[in-house]
Amino acid sequence: MAHPRASTQSQRFAQFKLVLLGESAVGKSSLVLRFVKDQFDDYRESTIGAAFLTQTIALDETTTIKFEIWDTAGQERYKSLAPMYYRNANCAVVVYDITQASSLDKAKAWVKELQRQANENIVIALAGNKLDLASDPSKRAVETAEAEAYAREAGLLFFETSAKTAENVKELFTAIAKKLPLDQQGPRGGRAGGAGGRGVDLKGGSAAQQQGCNC
Amino acid sequence: MGDFNEEYDVVIVGTGLTECILSGVFGAEGKKVLNIDKNSYYGGESASLNMLEMWKKFRWTEDQRRKEIEKAKAEEERKSVDATPGMAGSEPPAVFGTKPSEWNQWHISLVPKFLMADGELTNVLHKTGVTRYIDLLQVGGSYVVKKGTPYKVPSTRMEAVTSSLVSLFQKNHLQAFLQFIANYKEDDSTTHKQGLDLDKTTMREAYKLFSLDAWTSEFIGHAMALYVDDSYLDRPAREPIERIILYVRSMARFGKSPYIFPLHGLGELPERFSFLSAVYGGTYALNTPLQEILYDENGQVSGVKFPHPNTKEEVTVKTKKVVADPSYFLGDEKKIRHVGQLIRAICVLTHPIEGTEMADSAQIIIPASQIGRRHDIYISLVSSTFNVCPKGFYLASVSTVIENPSAGNPHAELEPGFERLGLGSGRLGDREEKFIQVVDLYEPVEDGTKDNVFISRSYDASTHFETCTVDDVKDIYKRLVGKDLLIEERKEEPVEE
Q1: Which of residues 169-188 of B touch A (CB under 8 A)?
Q2: Theoretical Cys-Cys bridge with A51: which of A73, A150, A207, B415, CB 3.0 to 4.6 Å?
Q3: DSSP string spanning B257-305?
Q4: Which residues in chain A touch residue B255, judged by CB atoms under 8 angstroms apart?
Q5: Does residue A1 sit within a domain?
Q6: Does the residue A207 lie in any domain?
Q7: Looking at the partner chain, which of A85, A120, A200 has a beta carbon nearest the beta carbon of B254?
Q8: Which Gene3D superfamilies did the record assign (chain B) (predicted)?
Q9: What is the pLDDT of residues B17-57, one digit of tens each?
Q10: CA B225, CA B289: separation in Å to the nearest integer?
Q11: Span B139-166, pLDDT tens digits
């Protein structure tokens, strides 16, 4: 959820939950790793050990956005994502692989699923990953124009990205940040803020009442 | 990206809370774990369902549910993205929502149990780091019904003085008892009560030692020690005393009641544990029934057969250990034993419960003696504060052990509970609903050490989680691994690299 926190009158800070969706092996985790740590690993195994990362970006001099990024931990492989995964997500990046036509079909199915199940005003971005492979034109299986037309029709942000070369990765997340409603107040679910400050803190010894959460 | 591995250290069948905790624990230990579940959702018996799922489970026929699955399959084969799936059965009434995003605002727990704030399950949640991603809220009140009126359960000396639940003559005795409970330390004999040997003295005698009368001991045993019947009275006092200590300590943690409950309902727990397990490399496949367990010549597990969740082709994986919930062995008398029947009604209400000071959440116990029964009736109430239903609605659960199955009318056994909810004599408002279920309880016949198939127990009648889940988790772990489960506290972020 958005946690607008005004540190000074002119500073704005907001936190959003972002989920990644898409077929296995399209590079979901690689995109996040490039965005969060500016790293890339050619031989990255399927997602193990990392499924929750955060990254803060400055939109302009007065506005800071923190993304709470959830990776699927591989639970999408057999269509076994738990509802808690996209519950209260403010934004989603649906990824396909520009060298695999079938991965765009999967991406469309995820978009449909999100539009049916998730927050009504969720911001969705479609990312055609592995753009670096398009340097060999014979490898490209999804034309830019085709995906772009679909994205426009479905109301999605659209980028072709390369986690390997970093092309358009930062641009993708920045575009999402710009589209998010920063001034949205009130509990849209999420962490303890959604519990109206009644969440209990188990770390404390006794009768510790927690006011929201600085996660 | 490969498909299923050829071999797993453990195959876990079912995604109930017990199974998911074990899966998370094994994953964290580096074991290779495969989890399958026949349902389309996580949690099995301990799931939270949205309104459409509730409707399908309780209002559709078996035939309609089967047709719906076939339709979904056909649609997938056509790879159609645009067609909206028509439904094989009726939709929920419009007052509960008319589209998925509205039905998804309901998280109705099938086994609406509370957690004790200072209990073992809470401890496990904290130690495994799962609480970083779950918000737990305190439950608004803990009540016991006497002569048709709910009273707050007193748990401190102060409350013993002011409570009108006990007679004037009993107040001093109750105070002395609660003082003993608050001070008790196992290794400090000055805090012990003379003449009370926790391992020898029965609880019945222990009450006498403190001069507690029949009613005072009744509400202590049922509303604090949380026994559903009176069989504990003639057993050693240790277990009931420990349970009362747990109640009082849990109460002291957050103040309003000893109970806590997750935002978005109980289904959060198995979902989060499954996610934890997946982060450690565990594989999950829903919509995947268990076809067969394979055994070697010594009668020990050698593998598991199931239809591939995507292609539906038969898959066999090797494994030497299987953990499963009893619902996968129905009718197999060599594996599971029927131990009882509960009846549970999940009620959608539009008002809080009378006599609870408009509490947005509460546990109410109607002791058996008050209504001429042998087993208590348990009521739990949660509301939109917990994000389990839209604003203006409340979810109440009424449950008890079926005492008279031959009468053929188990619903009648819940009547005193329905009266408490304002639903007596079948009354039901326009925007209200009752989902009633008879639940069969099972336990494993054998402990699993012979064939390496470890079966969990059904969740019992009570509305709290202490007695069953964590004990069962520890028990299965010990039998499977051969040593005690020790969950070490994770100091680092479990899922952040």
Answers
A1: none
A2: A73
A3: -SEEEETT-TTHHHHHHHHHHHHTT-EEESS----EEEE-TTS-EEEEE
A4: 207
A5: no
A6: no
A7: A200
A8: FAD/NAD(P)-binding domain, Guanine Nucleotide Dissociation Inhibitor, domain 1, Guanine Nucleotide Dissociation Inhibitor, domain 2
A9: 999 999 989 988 889 999 999 998 999 988 999 999 999 99
A10: 38
A11: 999 999 999 999 999 988 889 889 999 9
Q: Are residues B324 and B404 in the same domain?
A: no
- Closest residue in B to A196 (Cα–Cα): B385
Do residue B18 and residue B46 come from a single domain? yes
CA distance, residue B126 to nearest chain A CA (Å): 7
Domain that holds residue B410: 340-441
- CATH code of the domain covering residue A78: 3.40.50.300
Which tens digits make up the pLDDT trace of B316-357? Answer: 999 999 999 999 999 999 999 999 999 999 999 999 999 999
Q: Tokens 């009521």 — which residue? A: B379
Whether the Cβ atoms of residue B378 and residue B356 lie closer than 8 Å to each other: no
Contacts B275 to A, Cβ<8 Å: 51, 73, 75, 82, 84-85
What ipTM goes with this model? 0.79
Q: B242 and B146: one domain?
A: yes
Residues of A in contact with B279 (CB under 8 A): 48-51, 73
* Residue A178 distance to chain B (closest CA, Å): 25
Q: Which DSSP state fits B408?
A: S
Provide the 8-state DSSP code for B309. T
- Give one word for B41, left, alpha or beta, with left for phi > 0 and alpha for psi -120 to 50: beta
Q: Two tokens at B97?
A: 């929502």
Closest residue to B497, CB basis, from A50, A73, A85: A50
Q: Is the whole model's pTM more than 0.90, yes or no?
A: no
Are B425 and B475 part of one and the same domain? no
Same domain for B101 and B70, yes or no, is yes
